[in-house]
Write a structure and sequence with these properties.
The complex is a heterodimer.
Chain A (H helix, E strand, L loop, with lengths): L2 H5 L2 H13 L5 E2 L2 H4 L16 E4 L3 H14 L3 E4 L16 E4 L6 E5 L4 E4 L5 H8 L4 E2 L12 H7 L6 H4 L6 E7 L9 E5 L10 H5 L8 E8 L1 E2 L3 E9 L2 H13 L6 E6 H11 L9 E9 L1 H17 L4 E4 L3 H12 L1 H6 L4 E4 L9 H14 L3 E6 L8 E5 L6 H18 L15 H7 L2 H14 L14 H14 L1
Parallel strand pairs in A: 2-4, 3-4
Antiparallel strand pairs in A: 1-2, 5-6, 6-10, 7-11, 8-9, 8-10, 12-14, 12-15, 13-14, 13-17, 16-18, 17-18
Chain B lengths: L13 H13 L9 E2 L15 E2 L6 E5 L4 E5 L4 H9 L3 E3 L12 H7 L16 E7 L5 E5 L24 E11 L3 E8 L5 H9 L5 E7 L2 E8 L1 H11 L2 E2 L4 H5 L11 E5 L12 E5 L4 E5 L3 H10 L3 E6 L10 H11 L7 H8 L6
Parallel strand pairs in B: 1-2
Antiparallel strand pairs in B: 3-4, 4-8, 5-8, 6-7, 6-8, 9-11, 9-12, 10-11, 10-14, 13-15, 13-16, 14-15
The chains are: A alpha+beta, B alpha+beta.
The complex binds flavin-adenine dinucleotide.
Chain lengths: 487, 358
């Protein structure tokens, strides 16, 4: 008997033995050193070691794993590429981590119907690459698109820089195959949604989007593809204050233009990115906006002149129009590498995801600055301004004893301020473990009880990613009490 | 930042509704089940049960901020009144919302989940629902989703209401995404034989993103384009065709003469399907993905449609059995939101249990 086996219960050992039959050889990890890389997602401040990590290669693997979990009463966390930022794919102690990343095939690109059918582990960007020869692409483009999986995108309802015009994941998925954990059809593969632009019955497809692996395990996704626009032009506007840049965002929308992308970066994000990849940003600007306009060339031309006028009226110091695709690509590369760029300036960072009405962006940015001072921390901002979706990135040094605690408090303050101004604690990264306390601030007890009722109706054995996303009543009461006495 | 108020009579009857539902939940009084209704304007399309609880008295636009492109209104508010308000600000809903009469309510539209002719080229109604408040089957007032563009906190119970026929709760208000009205909308028509449609669908693909509607009817293909004036004119110049007289509004609201037949069915199909158009009179939308059939043989239609991977909704006339509904999940969700089965039990059994008829 190995050292590890000696600390496992007999049931756990029997579970592992049964798993081994489904996941032979290198497809099942149970040793400490093999489990370590799977301890966390891209929010590494929360880690837990799983009882076992299994690599799924087929739908049948997923079905059998879930059956075994039920038989042995062992919870299961699904994991795609592990790029999540809310610890959604963090294992549960004593539980199984089922990785769907190896199911990464693009099964079909239907050029005529403009759809693609993929396995859940297919990488977001690979899908656009595979569709490109047909003049098509997959519109939702998270900044993590080179690594994140479509299954993970559905589970978080991921957004991206082009979602302002083209919608987030839920608006770009036609149907799913999913392994059900409901009592009546446990272990059955069901299809949600259809290829018909409508569906008989409830919108179960929408319900599964953003359900964070808590309502079923996704085994196949059919997405809608979008024709590559005839033309795309990119503008960059430099501002002397973040407030002005934020107000320009509302002004553009007020002028009747919905850009394909409308992103903002503040000074800290600009300088970090410039140092990282020489994107060509103005280091003197307090904030910049990056704007894509796409479509019919005459449409783009008309909107370009409107946006240029609005930017000038909003007090932009300078407005630049990308001269060619190379310059466009460089500007966007900067935006998309902002997280790792900021990561180079600080031992650790923690990215949050509040979404607010557009006209409150300036208020939230200023408030974040104030809160950060209180905790002696720095915050960089790079975000989906057109959607009002903020990403304050808190920079901290985890080696300092109380740094993580200060960071969590700052994050809580910012998120709760987002709720106060009419927003939400998460626009696209999900609740996971990270924001579970703030759920008690955003929702009432009756609302949270309703969420729990939905969860237990579809996962009565509480096997799927339990104890995340929806807090227990006790946890809510504890957090609210803490807030009212110490807040 | 202008807050805009509407002229709709604002009337909040949330508490009365919640009280009535709570009583039914506790089994008090004489109502065990509640049939929710709005103005009743959709009764001619298969939703004719007598409402025992009307939400048409729960009215008013609660929040409209043009700069935010969002609007929150009580579900009894007539869609026509909201549209008038949006028009004044050069905006409209970010998806077409059919409203058969000027009294059709917002709540009815959400419950039915019908989409207009533009759905294949833009958003569906479910795509633009950002949040809602409802009375659940326990009589509790709960709010899901939000007022902002993106929100993934908790399960998406707001979008789940779209097309649920009021079986999961009494919706009190809904927040919807808006968009600026296009600068220009123009339509052209062509004579096309049914066998020529496939070739046209190949062409229409390249007319995006300005293409905003397609309708094939009585041998004429009507195409609608929306966008900036210069761009639309450019496309029309290249395309040719005659100016189309089609009343897209009447088409969207199911008010065109076509929809008045004794029998009416709607077939949903994968895009670019070629459904044999031999039974009854047909009207083809969404580049072949939606076909309305008037006075046809519903059973034969359902067979043909199923073979192509689609499904049929009967609005009037003989029902067909409804397939493709995951009844286990429907029952589980119904019990989670409405444990005593208070809301619209007839609709639920008929449409969502996989045993009934559409
Ligand atoms: C640098 C960086 C930039 C980012 N930018 C963005 C951005 O712009 N927009 C955005 O939305 N997000 C962004 N993210 C967050 C992250 O990439 C997304 O949430 C993504 O959708 C996660 O996909 P994943 O495959 O990595 O999922 P994971 O992290 O592996 O899992 C995420 C959740 O999905 C569940 N899950 C995974 N696979 C399945 C399955 N097959 N069935 C059921 N549930 C499953 C997991 O249980 C977990 O709850 C960023 C992350 C990083 C690190």
């Amino acid at each position: 008997m190995s050292h590890i086996d000696s600390v496992r219960t007999a049931d756990e050992q029997a579970f592992i033995a049964a798993l081994r039959k489904v996941f032979p050889g290198e497809r099942l990890f149970v040793n400490r050193e093999n489990l370590a890389p799977y301890e966390c997602d891209a929010l590494p401040v929360y880690t837990t070691q799983a009882l076992a990590v299994a690599l799924a290669e087929s739908e049948q693997d997923v079905v059998e794993a879930l059956q075994l979990c039920k038989k042995f009463g062992i919870p299961v966390v699904s994991r795609g590429a592990g790029t999540g930022l809310s610890a959604g794919a963090k294992p549960i102690a004593g539980g199984l981590l089922l990785v769907t990343a190896p199911m990464k095939q693009i099964l079909e690109v239907d050029q005529v119907a403009m759809t693609a059918r993929v396995q859940p582990g297919a990488i977001n960007q690979q899908l656009s690459i595979a569709s490109a020869p047909h003049g098509l692409y997959y519109a939702p483009d998270p900044s993590s698109q080179i690594a994140c999986s479509i299954g993970g995108n559905v589970a978080e309802n991921a957004g991206g820089v082009h979602c302002l015009k083209y919608g987030v994941t839920v608006q770009n998925v036609l149907s799913l195959r999913l392994v059900s954990a409901a009592e009546e059809n446990f272990g059955e593969v069901i299809t949600l949604g259809s290829n018909c632009l409508s569906q008989p019955g409830f919108d179960l497809l929408a319900l599964v989007h953003g359900s964070e692996g808590g309502l079923g395990i996704i085994t196949e996704v059919t997405v809608k593809l979008t024709p590559v626009p005839e033309q795309t032009r990119t503008l960059m506007a430099d501002f002397g204050s973040v407030r002005q840049a934020a107000d320009a965002v509302s002004a553009i929308v007020r002028a009747g233009v919905i850009p394909a992308a409308l992103e903002m970066m503040d000074k800290l994000a600009i300088s970090a990115t410039e140092a990282f990849c020489k994107a060509g940003y103005n280091l003197d600007a307090a904030g910049i906006l990056l704007i894509d306009l796409d479509g019919h060339p005459l449409e783009v031309e008309a909107e370009l002149s409107i946006v240029e006028r609005v930017l000038a009226e909003s007090g932009a110091i300078a407005v630049h129009l990308a001269s060619d695709d190379e310059q466009r690509a460089r500007w966007w590369k900067g935006r998309k590498s902002a997280f790792p760029a900021i990561g180079r300036l600080t031992p650790d960072y923690y990215c949050i995801d509040g979404t607010v009405p557009r006209h409150r962006i300036g208020d939230v940015l200023e408030a974040s600055e104030r809160f950060a001072e209180k905790y002696a921390l720095r915050v960089a901002n790079v975000f989906h301004a057109g959607d009002g979706n903020l990403h304050p990135i808190i920079m901290f040094d985890g080696r300092e004893p109380d740094a993580l605690e200060r960071t969590e408090k700052l994050a809580a303050d910012i998120l709760e301020y987002c709720i106060e101004v009419g927003g939400t604690i998460t626009g696209e990264h999900g609740v996971g473990v990270e924001k579970i306390n703030q759920m008690a601030v955003q929702f009432s007890d009756a609302e949270l009880a309703q969420f729990r009722a939905i969860k237990s109706a579809l996962d009565p054995h509480n096997l799927l990613n339990p104890d995340k996303q929806i807090p227990t009543l006790a946890r809510c009461q504890e957090y609210r009490a803490l807030r009212s006495c110490c807040g | 930042m202008a807050d805009v108020t509407s002229h709709t009579v604002a009337c909040d009857i949330s508490d009365a509704i919640a009280t009535q539902v709570a009583a039914a939940y506790r089994g008090e009084g004489d109502v065990a089940s509640i049939c929710l209704g709005g103005s009743g304007s959709r009764a001619a399309f298969g939703l004719g049960d007598q409402a025992t609880l009307s939400l048409s008295g729960h009215t008013g636009v609660e929040d409209y901020q043009p700069d935010e492109l969002t609007l929150r209104a009580r579900t009894g508010t007539p869609i026509a009144e909201i549209e008038a308000l949006l028009n004044a600000n050069n905006q409209w809903f970010a998806a077409e919302i059919p409203s058969p009469s000027s009294s059709s309510t917002l709540g009815g539209a959400i419950a039915c989940g019908w989409d207009g002719p533009g759905r294949a080229f833009g958003s569906a109604l479910r795509d633009i629902v950002l949040g809602c408040q409802l009375v659940n089957g326990r009589g509790e007032i709960v709010r899901f989703g939000g007022q902002v563009m993106k929100n993934v906190a908790g399960f998406d119970l707001a979008r789940l209401q779209v097309g649920a026929l009021g079986t999961l709760g009494a919706m009190l208000d809904v927040t919807l995404r808006l968009q600026p009205q296009p600068e220009c909308t123009k339509s052209v028509a062509f004579d096309v034989a049914p066998e020529g449609l496939d070739a046209w669908w190949q062409r229409t693909r390249s007319l995006r993103p300005l293409l905003s509607g397609s309708c094939y009817f009585e041998g004429r293909l009507h195409l609608r384009f929306s966008g900036r004036e210069l761009a639309v004119s450019d496309v029309l110049q290249q395309l040719g065709g005659e100016v189309s007289p089609l009343d897209w509004r009447a088409l969207m609201d199911l008010n065109s003469a076509f929809f008045h037949g004794e029998r009416l069915a709607c077939a949903y199909l994968p895009r670019y399907s070629s459904l044999p158009l031999n039974s009854g009179k047909a009207l083809v939308e969404w580049e072949g993905a939606r076909v309305w059939v008037r006075d046809g043989d519903h059973l034969a239609l359902a067979r043909d449609v199923a073979a192509l991977g689609g499904f049929v909704r009967v609005m009037r006339g003989p029902a067909v059995s409804l397939q493709g509904v995951t009844s286990a999940w429907h029952r589980a969700l119904k019990s989670a939101l409405d444990p005593k089965g208070v809301f619209n039990p007839v609709h639920f059994d008929r449409c969502f249990t996989g045993e009934g008829f559409a």
